[in-house]
C-alpha cells in the first residue's frame, strides 16, 4: 500500500516538475524577451557577432550609459560590425496566427559628436522555414538628430505579428563613417510582445446593447 502511495506521490511530483519546466520555457508576453539587451553582461547571448562589436563601461570618454553601467558599441577600426540574437516564439503560434499579438522594438541609440557613425537595429519576423515575413527597424540616429552632441536618443517601432511568425531575429548593426573607432552605440534594447485588444464586431456590440436594455427594463418593473 505504501509503495503504491509513494509511486503516486513520485508521479505527482514528476507532473508538477514537467509543468513547471514548460512554464519556465514559455515565451513571456508584456516584458522584454531579449537576453542581455542592456549590455550589462558584455556580449553574452548575442551571437553571431561580426567585426569588433563590443561593450564599453559608462564613463568611457565621459559617455553615460542610458541604462545601468554598460552600453554596446561598434568597436575598433571596422565598418560595419553586427551582433544578433534569435528568439523562438513558436509556443505562441495559436495567438500569433489569430492576429492577437503585437511586437515592439525599442532602444537608446547613439553616436559621437559630429560623426555620423550610427547603430541600426532590425527585428526580422521569420516563419517556420526562417523566411522573412516582415521587419521592424529602429535607427539610425544621425549627428544632426543629436545636435552634434555625443549621446543617445530613444527610438521605438511596433507592428502586428504576421500570421505564421515563429521566431524573431534581432540584429544590431554599427556603421563607422569617420575616425578609427566605430561609434555606433546602443543600450537597453527591448523586444516586447503584447496582446492586441479585441475589437468587438458590430453585431456583438448590438447584442450587448439589447442585453443592457433588457436589464434596465426588468429593473424598472421591480421598482
Ligand atoms: Ca546598459
Ligand atoms: Ca568614429
The number of E-state strands comes to: 10
H-E order: HEEEEHEEEEEEH
Average residue pLDDT: 85
Using the 3D structure, state the CATH architecture: Sandwich
The chain-level structural class is alpha+beta
What's the arrangement of strands in the largest beta sheet?
Answer: 1-4-9-6-7
CATH class: Mainly Beta
Small molecules bound: calcium ion
Q: Which percent range fits the helix content?
A: 10-25%
Would you spell out the secondary-structure blueprint of this structure?
Layout: H1 2-25, E1 49-50, E2 54-57, E3 70-76, E4 81-88, H2 93-97, E5 101-111, E6 118-126, E7 132-138, E8 151-160, E9 167-175, E10 181-195, H3 202-222
Antiparallel strand pairs: 1-4, 2-3, 3-10, 4-9, 5-8, 5-10, 6-7, 6-9
The chain binds calcium ion (2 copies).
Keywords, please?
Jelly Rolls, 5-stranded antiparallel sheet, 10 strands, elongated, binds calcium ion, 223 residues, disordered C terminus, alpha+beta
Overall description:
This protein has 223 residues and is of the alpha+beta class. The chain is built from three helices and ten strands; from the N terminus they run αββββαββββββα. The strands form two sheets. It has a five-stranded antiparallel sheet with strand order 1-4-9-6-7, with no helix packed on it. Strands 2-3-10-5-8 form a five-stranded antiparallel sheet, with no helix packed on it. A hairpin with a 5-residue loop joins strand 6 and strand 7. The longest helix has 24 residues, at 2-25. It is elongated, with a radius of gyration of 25 Å. Bound molecules: calcium ion (2 copies). One calcium ion binds at residues 112, 115, 117, 176, 178-179, 181, 183.
Amino acid at each position: 500500500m505504501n509503495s503504491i502511495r509513494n509511486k503516486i506521490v513520485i508521479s505527482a511530483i514528476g507532473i508538477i516538475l514537467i509543468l513547471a519546466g514548460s512554464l519556465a520555457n514559455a515565451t513571456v508576453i508584456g516584458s522584454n524577451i531579449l537576453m542581455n539587451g542592456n549590455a550589462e553582461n558584455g556580449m553574452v547571448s548575442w551571437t553571431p557577432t561580426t567585426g569588433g562589436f563590443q561593450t564599453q563601461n559608462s564613463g568611457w570618454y565621459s559617455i553615460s550609459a542610458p541604462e545601468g553601467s554598460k552600453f554596446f558599441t561598434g568597436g575598433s577600426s571596422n565598418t560595419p560590425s553586427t551582433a544578433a540574437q534569435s528568439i523562438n516564439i513558436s509556443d505562441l503560434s495559436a495567438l500569433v496566427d489569430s492576429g492577437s499579438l503585437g511586437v515592439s522594438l525599442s532602444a537608446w541609440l547613439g553616436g559621437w559628436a559630429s560623426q555620423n557613425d550610427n547603430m541600426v537595429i532590425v527585428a526580422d519576423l521569420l516563419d517556420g522555414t526562417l523566411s522573412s515575413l516582415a521587419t521592424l527597424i529602429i535607427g539610425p540616429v544621425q549627428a544632426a538628430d543629436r545636435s552634434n552632441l555625443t549621446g543617445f536618443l530613444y527610438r521605438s517601432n511596433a507592428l502586428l505579428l504576421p500570421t505564421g511568425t515563429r521566431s524573431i531575429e534581432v540584429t544590431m548593426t554599427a556603421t563607422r563613417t569617420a575616425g578609427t573607432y566605430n561609434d555606433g552605440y546602443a543600450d537597453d534594447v527591448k523586444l516586447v510582445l503584447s496582446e492586441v485588444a479585441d475589437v468587438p464586431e458590430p453585431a456583438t456590440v448590438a447584442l450587448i446593447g439589447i442585453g443592457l436594455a433588457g436589464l434596465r427594463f426588468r429593473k424598472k418593473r421591480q421598482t
